[in-house]
Amino acid sequence: MPYSANENRYEKMIYNRVGKSGLKLPAVSLGMWQNFGDRAVFDDVRTMMLAAFDLGITHYDIANNYGPTPGSAEETFGRVFEKDLKPYRDEIIVSSKAGYYMWPGPYGEWGSKKNLIASCDQSLKRTGLEYFDIFYHHRPDPETPLEETMDALAQLVRQGKALYVGISNYNAADTEKAYAILKDMGVRLLIHQASYNMFNRRNEEVFAACDRLGIGAALFSPLAQGLLTDKYLNGIPADSRAAGPSVFLHRENITPDKVEKARRLNEIASSRGQSLAQMALSWDLRHACAATVLLGVSRLSQILDSVKAIDNLAFTQDELDAIDGILSMTF
To answer: Is residue 210 part of a domain?
Structure first.
């Protein structure tokens, strides 16, 4: 059956303005990092992508190295786009990135102009798109002048290959430098994609810089690879990420300290009428610059649960104090 989007898809989703720009992103976006490549079941991936759109999730976030294998998440997106989402191109935001290793030799990673322009061209071919709505430099390059990397992003905007540009994994000082360099080139730095969750708060200094400059933020790993869900409250399930060959979450990451904190946080979530995952997403979105949280999911049920976070985004000061108290404890 040909896909036809839910007519009511915009009724419940919240759309946040990205910094001081005209662009809005859904409070919850679909991150296609680990479970959307050629090792996933295509029909399952397609179901998740279309269900997300039916829920008002208009933003798909990918990168050249996403998979596994690298490049395959963009190819998967391209298949679903061509088959189902092409009629809705003007209703969706697609972001991609370059900077991590993609091909051998000196031009296959980091932040040279050669790498970024070539990577964007490759990504456009894999996705079947004419342009990206947002294109990011994925990580800072300590050996390439920041002016060169920003010049590459500016060129992509001028060529019409990207409507907006962003950076990811930059510290606060380099964020301010990147913003100033692009501003001098007549291009706005729209957004910073940063890792952030209750167990990882190191980027709060970056958010302060974003607030000063009017840059939005997209937050990845908001659930700490599943640690901020009820998945590990009673051991490590056989079908979980930590039980498998994941390079990002291992059994030793499931520490007694984090499990006890998650249990106590879960009690606060229950009192709010939320799951722990929903509260964790709501907590991330409390930041003024936070435009969206990026969901990393492996099944449809996770999308359906997570999107309910927007039903309760407000926190009392007592709740925030209680959460901070739990996070500062050692068990």
So the answer is: yes
Query: Rounded to the nearest 5°, which phi and psi values hold at 35?
Result: -120, 25
**Rounded Cα gap, residues 282 and 110, in angstroms:** 33
Give the CATH number, domain containing residue 285: 3.20.20.100
**H or E element in which residue 162 lies:** strand 162-168
What is the percent of the chain with per-residue pLDDT over 70, rounded to a whole number? 94
User: What is the extent of the structural domain holding 240?
Assistant: 15-255+276-311
Written as six digits, the tokens of 280 are 């964790």
Residues 112, 99 contacting (CB under 8 angstroms):
no
Beta strands in 82-128 (DSSP E): 93-98
Beta bridge partners, 92, equal: none
Q: Is residue 322 part of a domain?
A: no
Q: Which residues pair with 242 in a beta bridge?
A: none
CA dihedral 101, 107, 113, 116 (to 10 degrees): -40
Decide: helix, strand or coil at residue 5.
coil
**Total count of domains within the chain:** 1
- Residue whose C-alpha is closest to residue 61's, from 188, 166, 161: 166
Rounded mean pLDDT, 26-49: 97
DSSP assigned state of 197: B
28, 295 contact by CB (below 8 A): yes
In terms of pTM, does the model score above 0.70?
yes
Q: How far is CA 11 from CA 54, 57, 197, 269, in A?
A: 10, 11, 28, 25
